[in-house]
Amino acid sequence: MRQDELDVIILSVLPDCILRRDRLVELLRAVPEKSNAADMQRQQDLDRVRREKVAAETRIRRLIEMVEDGHMSSKDPIFAERLAQYRRNVAQLEASERSLAERRITAVVPSSAARRTPYPFDRRAYRRRNQVERPFCRLKNWRRIATRYGRLACNYLAFLGPRLIQSQKARAVARATPERKLAASLS
Q: According to the model, what pLDDT value does residue 97 have?
């Protein structure tokens, strides 16, 4: 079969499989609900960051009051270390507050283990993000897709379609029972 004929076949089938009306309606119906939930979560995250920032600024103020009252020396290395740590914490919280307020971003990736006060993240959104990333990582195992040797979009899609089908078949076989694996290997 010629390459251009294969391109036409795959390009005619893919939109029917991927862009079905019922599938799009279902996806679009969930958008406002997710948007409202995301706005509420964003506002909660912003409130939490602001509370943490006020607490960090209060710790700095108390530390300075201890020096002013004579309980601690300003030349004490513990004082300098704590002051620097608290200031870094405030700067980090200010940056988080700005990004949440300006870009309306919610945390999807969990915070690092080194962070003293880990910020909450949406586990379902993180799982969905992972489910989207995994197929792209699998596709990049094929050198032709990763480097995009096909200059034309139709050639690239023509190669991409069968690889997606092959990838899904491999995943289905991996989850199947031994009898199904044997039947798939014989077909």
A: 84
